[in-house]
Specification:
It is built from 11 helices and 9 strands. Helix 4 packs parallel to helix 8 and helix 9 runs antiparallel to helix 10. It is globular.
Length: 338
């Protein structure tokens, strides 16, 4: 029996368990369809009945509910005015969740068909409202993210990840000892500045593929990796998304709107913008490393098309900061001359 077939049988069995425990829940599954997954290792299936449809997720089994980050963050988000998919049932020991079916339309697929910049702005304004609500949740609340932070060690882990999978593996380039020291020293300088800022609760992967559009309204998914970080982290993830290019005018208007909703009028706008730009450099380069990793580790080349756009975004941000000129030269020369 193929793994996919055995997973369908497991989902059918667990769905029947739900029906047995919950009166008038729904009819028996008519069809169970495998869905294209995201960049994670989770597997998704659509469960069709005569009346409704659901999405079933299979992930790593765990011993109890309190150990499951997805469930922990779901419980907080769903009570904090953050629209997330409803969970109808779960079995942590089997890594199983039965969730609301949000359909197939992501924010990315929605906005990519919009031709009016005003419509795009109005859509993203709703997303920023969600982000403001997430950032208002106490960052040190006693759940999984209480001790998890985007600190220097975490940021440098990500930069070393990109060095390994993008520079050394994807580009097939071995840095000299001198180049490697420059890379490490300059990125450490950059992330030390980021790590000194006040932190909020971050979604961690807040981009246009992790927002679903249901009945015209945005719904947040893939939130299980929430942790503390600077507010610009999530803002950059959405506005400087490698998947969709917002206009420069809309980016500035949405940044302004976020600041108005989140801070008082005495905020240091120049400093905010600097942290935003440095965060864009770090976040974009980490994303490029992830695209290369997914290609190599999972033989999935769907994300390689975003590398070029990401590198151009990096190039334009780096140019604003002459103190990182040597790092700029190193990264750009390795990519554009390879």
């Amino acid at each position: 029996m193929r793994p996919e077939e055995s997973e369908r049988l497991l989902i059918e069995e667990l769905f029947e368990n739900t029906r047995a425990r919950v009166k008038d829940f729904d009819r028996a599954p008519k069809e169970i369809i495998s869905l294209t997954g995201d960049a994670s290792t989770r597997r998704y299936y659509r469960v069709m009945t005569d009346r409704n449809s659901f999405v079933s997720c299979l992930s790593e089994p765990m011993e109890n509910d309190k150990d499951n980050d997805f469930l922990n963050v779901y419980n907080i988000f769903s009570t904090s005015n953050v629209r997330v998919p409803k969970i109808y049932d779960h079995n942590i020991k089997k890594g199983y969740f039965l969730q609301e079916d949000l359909g197939n339309k992501t924010l990315l697929s929605h906005v990519s068909l919009l031709q009016s910049e005003d419509e795009i702005f109005a859509t993203y304004k709703k997303i920023i409202d969600i982000l403001v609500n997430i950032h208002k949740i106490p960052a040190n609340i006693e759940y999984s993210w209480g001790s998890l932070k985007f600190d220097v060690d975490k940021f440098m882990f990500e930069m070393n990840f990109t060095k390994k999978y993008f520079i050394e593996s994807f580009l097939d380039i071995e840095l000299t000892t001198e180049e490697s020291c420059l890379y490490d020293d300059m990125f450490k300088q950059l992330v030390e500045e980021l790590s000194c800022e006040e932190m909020v609760l971050c979604h961690r992967d807040f981009h246009s593929r992790n927002i679903m559009m249901k009945d015209g309204e945005p719904v947040v998914i893939d939130f299980q990796d929430a942790r503390q970080g600077v507010s610009q982290y999530d803002l950059v993830s959405m506005l400087e998304d490698c998947y969709f290019q917002l206009s420069a005018d809309n980016i500035e208007k949405l940044k302004k709107y976020y600041i108005e909703q989140s801070f008082d009028e005495n905020i240091d706008k120049e400093k905010f913008d600097r942290i935003y730009d440095l965060m864009t450099i770090q976040r974009t380069f980490k994303a490029i490393g992830s695209f290369a990793y997914i290609n190599q580790d999972r033989d999935d080349n769907r994300y390689l098309k975003y590398i070029g756009f990401g590198m151009e975004k990096l190039r334009n941000k780096f140019k604003k900061y002459p103190e990182y000129r040597d790092l700029f030269n190193l990264i750009m020369s390795k990519y554009y001359e390879s």
